[in-house]
Amino acid sequence: MASQYDYDVVIIGGGPAGSTVARYAAEQGIRVVVLDARKSIGTPLQCGELVPTNDEMRRLCPDVPDMDDLFRTPQEAISRTSQKMKIITPSGKSLEYDFEGLILNRVLHDEALVDMAKSSGAEYMVDTFVTKIEGNSVFTRSGKEITGKVIVGAGGHNDPVRRAFWNEKSLNIPVKFSLKEGDYGDAVELHFGSMAPGGYAWMFPKSSGANIGLGIQKNFAKGKSLNKFASEFIDKYEGEATFTGAGSLPMSGTIKTFVKDHYVLVGDSAGMVLPSNGAGITIAMVGGRIAGQVIGKHINENIELVEYEKIWKSQMGKVMKNSKRSFKFGSLLFKLPDWILDIMFNRLTKGIIWRAVTCRRMLWVF
To answer: What backbone torsions phi and psi does residue 187 show, to the nearest 5 degrees?
Structure first.
């Protein structure tokens, strides 16, 4: 008997979260379509492009299984690898840590995720802007109606599914960055202090040049604009800017529920960004795999969609809880004057700072 829906699952947003849902859902033989407003998925660039290696992810998120199956980053999408991270105070004091990171070519990375999803059987409709969602129907600007048994919101912090059916608010931090030409070494840099109040600034070196930018909490900025903070920090690095971009990150952690009836949220729309370090690409993919697998079983075996939330909590609950705690503590800490931060960031606190950044409990009592 023919299905009453055009697709088993309609996914809004073809970024890392949406494409990962599509890949794992389609692998189970169900009918999947991804709708994306962009003409080319992956552009325009909206982030710093840093992700941990698979081995580093195993250390950061020890309860997440099968990292090598989930993260299949092709070599051509890796601009540079880094073995060091420097955390830098306002005075320029640097604390150096071992950290295995990949600085991506984000466009090629997202295109590879699309290819994997298509290889599994997912369909894509680009240049397709969603205007509203009613029941099991998704309506587009062109007047098309697309129906699905399950509708997934993977459209970022301004996702239409979340806007329509969720009232919970997230703290969204605006970010701005530039790609600059030059040789910036091979260590990843995170900068904390008044140059990025309530957030942090970064320099991520690439094979040619670097991704340099920052994010701030507006209520910490004392009326100073994001553009002003960005230009002051980015201009410290010599080199010609070849691209400037902006975006927004939900930095208050995951929202309370990801599932309502047949609606599902994943990635930034569900708050799947680690507040203490801004990591979102890999975390969105962790959530995307769980959602895709559960949606497939929901269609094929009639299991409840809320199983997605239970598995997420078992794999990522501790990490997210620690990251939220560190972010709240950091938000208090970064209200202090720069000279106090310089004193507090030292060899004695080095381990505590690293535990906070990597989403572990900073102290046994905290």
So the answer is: -95, 135
Block residue for tokens 């990597």: 358
Tens of pLDDT, residues 288-330:
999 999 999 999 999 999 999 999 999 999 999 988 888 888 7
Look at residue 362 in the predicted model and tell me its pLDDT. Answer: 58
Which comes out higher in pLDDT, residue 259 or 3?
259
Is-contact 90 338, C-beta < 8 A? yes
What is the total residue count of the chain? 366
The C-alpha atoms of residue 258 and residue 269 are separated, in whole angstroms, by 9
Q: 10-45 pLDDT, tens per residue?
A: 999 999 999 999 999 999 999 999 999 999 998 877
Please state the domain extents for the chain. 7-357
**For the domain bounded by 7-357, which CATH number is listed?**
3.50.50.60
Helix (H, G, I), strand (E, B) or coil at 346: coil
Which stretch of DSSP H or E encloses residue 341? helix 338-344
Q: How far apart are CA 272 and CA 134, in angstroms?
A: 25
pTM above 0.85, yes or no: yes
DSSP per-residue codes, 5-63:
SSEEEEEE--SHHHHHHHHHHHTTT--EEEE-SSSSTT-S--S--EEE-HHHHHHH-TT
CA 262/CA 164 separation, integer angstroms: 13
